[in-house]
Specification:
It is a single chain. The chain is α+β, with helices and mostly antiparallel strands and 281 residues long. It has a domain at 148-281. Helices cover 16% and strands 49% of the residues. The chain contains three helices and 13 strands. Strands 1-2-3-4-5-6-7-8-9-10-11-12-13 form a 13-stranded antiparallel beta sheet, with helices on one face. Strand 9 (197-205) and strand 10 (211-218) form a beta hairpin. It is elongated. The N and C termini lie far apart (97 Å).
Length: 281
């Protein structure tokens, strides 16, 4: 019968069996290359000037007067097909690159109107998330807002998705809330205040034409409004449909305009006037 091993020999064998295999921690040449590439990318993002971003902009979009770096930079002037849009500042999220996504915190400023949020681009499209801010609506003329209107807007855009279909961009999904206070139009009722209004677009996907809807209601001003805004990105057109009536004592100029509308669109049994307005946006 063979003699049993000594206690020191058994302890040495146990340590050898429990010791980790050094090969399990070996870094392959491919892994070293990936780490080096990521390190080089990080250095580039931190060191390269922000102006290089101009070469990555899509056709029709231009930017100038850059400052900062690719990682954290700004452009004082952004233009879309020659139309001035304002200034933009961004800070990239490098970790998003691991998910094949380019993401950044972005601030957009045009005069007194400011929006902050997160933008992301991936193979599925462009996405805006948690965008908040606001300012005077008269400062939105750069986006095609009609002249002569004024008011103070606040915006919370939970999500906006743009997808590319057959070579064109269309709205994929929208979830948003907005409020306008002291809305007034220079050509309407002598510029009298029309009160406050809210817009609510529930989280929903757009249809094949990129069409979404939002509910618009008044906040207790001189006009009692209940309407739905339907907007199509494919047609770049919106339709506002609903009913309206005056509330309490309204300014004489506004009352006259309401009566003009009622003469064309008769009131219903509750005194409300149907409205259907087409908007080009």
């Amino acid at each position: 019968m063979p003699a049993s091993r000594s206690r020191p020999a058994r302890a040495e064998a146990a340590r050898a069996a429990s010791a980790p295999d050094a090969s399990a921690f070996a870094v392959t040449p491919r892994a070293w290359f990936a780490l080096a590439l990521l390190a080089l990318l990080a250095v580039a993002l931190v060191a390269l000037p922000a102006g290089l971003a101009a070469y990555a902009l899509p056709a029709g979009l231009q930017a100038s007067d850059f400052s900062g770096t690719i990682w954290h930079g700004a452009a004082e002037h952004v233009r879309l097909r020659g139309r001035e849009l304002g200034a933009v500042e961004w800070q990239l999220h490098p970790a998003a690159l691991f998910t094949l996504e380019l993401a950044a915190d972005v601030r957009w400023v045009t005069r007194g109107f400011v929006l902050d949020g997160r933008l992301a681009a991936n193979p599925h499209g462009l996405h805006a998330l948690d965008v908040t801010g606001g300012g005077p609506i008269e400062d939105l003329g750069v986006l095609g807002a009609p002249a002569g209107w004024r008011g103070q807007a606040s915006v919370h855009l939970s999500r906006l998705d743009l997808v590319r279909v057959d070579g064109t961009w269309r709205l994929g999904a929208l979830a948003a809330d907005a409020r306008i206070e002291d809305l007034a139009g220079a050509a309407l009722a002598g510029g009298a205040s029309l009160g406050n209004y809210t817009l609510h677009a529930p989280a929903t996907s757009a249809d094949a034409a990129g069409t979404v809807t939002a509910r618009i209601r008044d906040g207790g001003g001189p006009l009692d409004l209940d309407a739905v805004l339907t907007y199509s990105t494919r047609e770049a057109r919106g339709v506002l449909s609903g009913t309206v009536r005056e509330r309490g004592n309204v300014p004489a100029a506004l009352h006259a305009r309401i009566e003009e509308l009622a003469s064309v669109r008769p009131r219903d049994s509750s005194g409300r006037i149907p409205i259907d307005l087409e908007l080009s946006l």
